[in-house]
């Protein structure tokens, strides 16, 4: 079993306040591993525990992104690969997906790629889907539970989290899965894992290593640009206290108002 | 000179913060109200390796350095002082002291299971009539056959009712003051050992504080730590480890206070604007930041000195004195920012304020540290080399399996 977890090193949006310029935070602020990707790493580790094999963590980003990869190694992943090249800078999700798909292909035989449902910064939830499309394999998104996985028969059955309930899908392997936080509880890294991760040397693959034409991945190929990043406007709400002589009169007044607002 | 935490430290920091946020903090308010020790945290802390974080792997520890011990203390006290007190006592005062002074047999028998968290340990120095004046202790040990018979009562002992092993100090030469003190490793199972919990504390309600009574307790000679009469030096070196965790923990407590105060100051409005926009509230917040940043720098310097194997009694004392006083002021200011809400246990800052008063008192009162610093500066006090120094951190030795 070869599982690959996609992780992203993202700006810590908890640090985003009205006092900070959003674009500046995105570019220069403190960074963390994308929280949803920790669930992806955990699910890969659980698959390895149940079926044996190897877990690889893969990330695209500047050299600093090795911190996210080291987090994956500290949790227990066997190896980590960084995809990093100035040529990737300013790329959109499709450019990122092209580089990640090329890296996955370079890694050799694999059974499953797992990513978090989206990244904390862009929140597009597109990259994993685009990776699946570029690799020509099925995509199972918003997965809350892997019901069954059979690496010999190359099949998988999952529960997808939908707004109104859960959807059960079966697919063939290999495939790309994106997971929601209901799927597991990510483990803490062990001290042994931390020591191993701190010492690990992580290869950085460039566009040339992946035989990618720089014109297809970076800012030049990007269909989107970030004009501005800001906090959502503060919620404006007015509080109204209902008065009345008796609890019954107050309840009746409340019901009238709720009906007038078409809430009930 | 380098002020950046390395990759290992950053990962330890994240791991401890996650643990504090997800597992410790949600329990604490309830246990603080109930005045109970959350026993369920101990096996989790053991499993994560926190209880032996800076002990070499071959003695059951996690093989990390002394800066990591500081990071763990800071991360835990962010949630509550009680969680950090466990590290201060179990890891700092007891386990590191056995690591520093113990024989190989003592390390195998006591340090290793403690570092793995299979046994919990505490430190019995203080008595009802002997706190700052250690030499006034009345507990005594008399030689009998191939061991000692201990009698006495220890008071204000963190984890007294929880611990399996006790590092206890008693006089082998009652007329000799500090020079007559010796250190003994006592197990809960030794006949004549009883413990109890002290109630009515101002803070650290989620920690266990109690007494240890020793009534004709026979302790085999191989459980003497160090040499006869070396107890005072051993106790003071233990405090060099314990005080460091108290100082680092105070930084975490201050961070928790700052976070709560900033969050509240941005939300709460008076006179038509968030209170954070009032200059006097900004002043309170600015002073918190000032104390935190300075305290953290100094705490990590002490951790670095420990890693180098440099004697750090003076620096550790200064760190403990400054950070706990700073934390007392910071918690008080945080309560002030939150006003009436800060005074209620709906928020955390009142608990931090109650807790941190303990830190200003235990492991050397502020007054003891002031005296020490004055004496160092005036040349009245000098640290002589110890027979056994706390070893410098060497990753190869710490991480070797054998």
What layout of secondary structure does this protein have?
The complex is a heterodimer of chains A (264) and B (402).
Chain A: E1 2-6, E2 9-11, H1 22-28, E3 31-33, H2 35-51, E4 54-60, H3 66-75, E5 79-83, H4 93-107, E6 112-116, H5 127-135, E7 139-150, E8 155-161, E9 166-172, E10 175-179, H6 191-199, E11 204-205, H7 247-260
Parallel strand pairs in A: 1-4, 1-6, 4-5, 5-11, 6-10, 7-10
Antiparallel strand pairs in A: 2-3, 7-8, 8-9
Helix pairs in contact in A: 3-6, 4-5
Chain B: H1 7-34, H2 41-47, H3 66-79, H4 81-101, H5 104-115, E1 121-124, E2 140-144, E3 147-158, E4 165-171, E5 181-187, E6 193-197, E7 209-220, E8 224-225, H6 231-267, E9 269-270, E10 273-274, H7 279-308, H8 313-342, H9 349-361, H10 366-378, H11 395-399
Parallel strand pairs in B: 1-4
Antiparallel strand pairs in B: 2-3, 3-7, 4-5, 5-8, 6-7, 9-10
Helix pairs in contact in B: 1-3, 3-4, 3-6, 3-7, 4-5, 4-6, 6-7, 6-8, 6-9, 7-8, 8-9, 8-10
List keywords for this structure.
heterodimer; A: 264 residues; alpha/beta; Rossmann fold; two-stranded antiparallel sheet; 7 helices; 11 strands; 23% strand; B: 402 residues; alpha+beta; Butyryl-Coa Dehydrogenase, subunit A, domain 1; Butyryl-CoA Dehydrogenase, subunit A, domain 2; Butyryl-CoA Dehydrogenase, subunit A, domain 3; four-stranded mixed beta sheet; four-stranded antiparallel beta sheet; 11 helices; globular
């Amino acid at each position: 079993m070869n599982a690959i977890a996609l992780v992203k090193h993202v700006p810590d949006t908890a640090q985003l306040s009205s006092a900070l310029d959003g674009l500046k935070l995105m570019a220069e602020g403190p960074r963390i591993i994308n929280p949803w990707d920790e669930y992806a790493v955990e699910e890969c580790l659980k698959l390895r525990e149940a079926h044996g094999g190897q877990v690889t963590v893969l990330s695209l980003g500047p050299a600093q992104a090795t911190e996210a990869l080291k987090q994956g190694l500290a949790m227990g992943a066997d190896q980590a690969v960084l995809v990093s090249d100035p040529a990737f800078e300013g790329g959109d999700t499709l450019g990122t997906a092209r580089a990640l798909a090329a890296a996955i292909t370079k890694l050799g035989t694999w059974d499953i790629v797992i990513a978090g449902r989206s990244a904390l910064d862009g929140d597009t939830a597109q990259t994993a889907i685009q990776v699946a499309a570029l690799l020509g394999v099925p995509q199972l998104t918003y997965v809350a539970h892997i019901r069954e996985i059979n690496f010999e028969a190359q099949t998988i059955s999952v529960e997808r989290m939908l707004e109104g309930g859960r959807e059960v899908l079966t697919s063939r392997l290999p495939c790309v899965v994106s997971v929601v936080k209901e799927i597991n509880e990510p483990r803490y890294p062990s001290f042994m894992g931390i020591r191993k991760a701190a010492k690990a040397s992580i290869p950085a693959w460039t566009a040339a290593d992946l035989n990618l034409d720089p014109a297809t991945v970076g800012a030049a190929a990007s269909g989107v640009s970030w004009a501005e990043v800001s906090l959502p406007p503060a919620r404006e709400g007015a509080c109204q206290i209902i008065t009345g002589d008796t609890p019954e009169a107050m309840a009746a007044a409340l019901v009238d108002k709720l009906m007038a607002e078409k809430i009930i | 000179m380098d002020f950046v935490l390395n990759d290992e430290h950053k990962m330890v920091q994240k791991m401890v913060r996650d643990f504090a946020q997800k597992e410790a903090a949600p329990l604490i308010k309830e246990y603080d109200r109930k005045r109970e020790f959350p026993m369920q945290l101990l096996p989790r802390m053991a499993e994560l390796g926190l209880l032996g974080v800076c002990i070499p792997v071959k003695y059951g520890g996690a093989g990390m350095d002394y800066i990591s011990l500081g990071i763990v203390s800071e991360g835990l006290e962010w949630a509550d002082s009680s969680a950090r007190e466990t590290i201060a006592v179990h890891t700092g005062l007891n386990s590191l002291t056995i690591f520093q002074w113990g024989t190989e047999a003592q390390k195998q028998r006591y340090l290793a299971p403690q570092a793995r968290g299979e046994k919990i340990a505490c430190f019995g120095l203080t008595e009802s009539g002997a706190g700052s004046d250690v030499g006034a202790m009345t507990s005594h040990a008399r030689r009998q056959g191939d061991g000692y018979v201990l009698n006495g009562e220890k008071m204000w002992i963190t984890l007294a009712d929880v611990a399996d092993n006790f590092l206890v100090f008693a006089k082998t030469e009652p007329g000799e003051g500090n020079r007559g003190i010796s250190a003994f490793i006592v197990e809960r199972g030794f006949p004549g050992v009883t413990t109890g919990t002290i109630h009515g504390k101002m803070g650290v309600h989620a920690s266990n504080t109690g007494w240890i009574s020793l009534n004709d307790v026979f302790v085999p000679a191989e459980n003497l730590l160090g040499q006869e009469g070396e107890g005072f030096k051993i106790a003071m070196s233990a405090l060099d480890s314990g005080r460091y965790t108290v100082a680092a923990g105070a930084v975490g407590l201050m961070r928790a206070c700052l976070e709560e105060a900033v969050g509240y100051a941005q939300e709460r409005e008076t006179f038509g604007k968030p209170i954070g926009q009032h200059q006097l509230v900004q002043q309170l917040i600015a002073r918190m930041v000032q104390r935190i940043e300075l305290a953290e720098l100094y705490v990590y310097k002490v951790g670095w000195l420990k890693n180098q194997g440099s004697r750090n009694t003076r620096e550790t004392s200064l760190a403990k004195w400054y950070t706990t006083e700073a934390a007392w002021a910071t918690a008080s200011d945080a309560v002030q920012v939150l006003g009436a809400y800060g005074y209620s246990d709906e928020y955390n800052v009142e608990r931090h304020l109650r807790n941190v008063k303990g830190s200003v008192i235990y492991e050397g009162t502020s007054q003891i540290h002031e005296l020490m610093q004055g004496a160092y500066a005036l040349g009245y006090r000098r640290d002589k080399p110890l027979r056994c120094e706390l070893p410098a951190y060497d990753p190869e030795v710490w991480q070797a399996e054998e």
